[in-house]
Amino acid sequence: MIDEPAGRHAGDERPADFGFTSTTVGQKRRMVRGVFDSVARRYDLMNDLLSGGVHRLWKDAMMDWLAPRPGQHLLDVAGGTGDIAFRFIDRARRNAGSAAAQLPPARVTVCDLTPAMLEVGRDRAVDRGILDGIDWVAGNAEVLPVRSASVDVYTIAFGIRNVADIPAALAEARRVLKPGGRFMCLEFSQVQAPVLDRLYDLYSFKVLPQVGRVVARDAASYRYLAESIRKFPSADRFAGMIADAGFRQVKVRLLSGGIAALHSAWNV
Questions:
Q1: What are the tens digits of pLDDT across the range 98-124?
Q2: For residues 201-224, b (16+ Cβ closer than 10 Å) or e, as one string?
Q3: CATH no., domain 15-267
Q4: Alpha carbon of 237 to those of 79, 124, 226: distances in Å?
Q5: Angle at 88 between CA 4 and CA 122, to 5 degrees
Q6: Residues within the annotated binding site?
């Protein structure tokens, strides 16, 4: 079932950044939804084109560290097209081995701000023959439509930087996790290598918008996505924000020279 996201706090006038543009929290939420409304149908294709398929390796690394198990309930936030959900269900089954048939399957609730992204994910699930074990819910990461202490795992991949109020989203992540639940975030970060960082800037601000213009017919949305990466906190600073939200055992793994980072923490 796909529900429309609530309009709660839509008029929030606190300052926020939409890439390099100054705006308000309420306006950023509307603008982010507009971006993903525009790119939803070509989102996965663009991920493959723009990363050369490397985003798949990063998501596999996320699953390696997460080690999904049968019976776990995952809440995947900003996961509209289902990439993380499908991997989680498959990996939980594989990790169970020959005992998989005797154990309760893993299940996933996918929550995304943009119904158009959820429609793509639901269609992909049907194409894969996944008809059970996934719920599709439209909602805001800052005000999740999920009961407190109800999920075992919370993930968000390439979504936290688009959230208007990141501390609120982290507080919500902790609220919905059971005691002992796992938080994991995969997000772009700041490149560490001195030469690679200049090449990455050139690629992000010159190549990425042009590919977006040709393939997704939307250069502006991909320019925003490049800007949002530059505005996002460093891996160490974001780790501090996770700890400030009350999580413990916060750990960071940099991927591909710092192009992306995995953050893991526990609700204890």
A1: 888 889 999 999 999 999 999 999 999
A2: eeebeeebbeebeeebebeebbbb
A3: 3.40.50.150
A4: 24, 35, 19
A5: 35
A6: 81, 112, 140-141
Which pair of structure tokens corresponds to residue 206? 């010159």
Q: Which residues are annotated as a binding site for S-adenosyl-L-methionine?
A: 81, 112, 140-141
All structural domains of the chain with their residue ranges: 15-267
Q: Which two tokens stand for residue 256?
A: 């591909």
How large is the angle between the packed helices 25-39 and 219-231, nearest 10 degrees?
130
Q: What is the pTM of this model?
A: 0.89
Beta-carbon-side half-sphere exposure of residue 259 (alpha carbons within 13 Å): 17
Summary mean pLDDT of the chain: 88
Residue 40's closest CA among 50, 29, 32? Answer: 32
Q: 26: exposed, middle or buried (C-beta count within 10 Å: 0-12, 13-18, 19+)?
A: middle
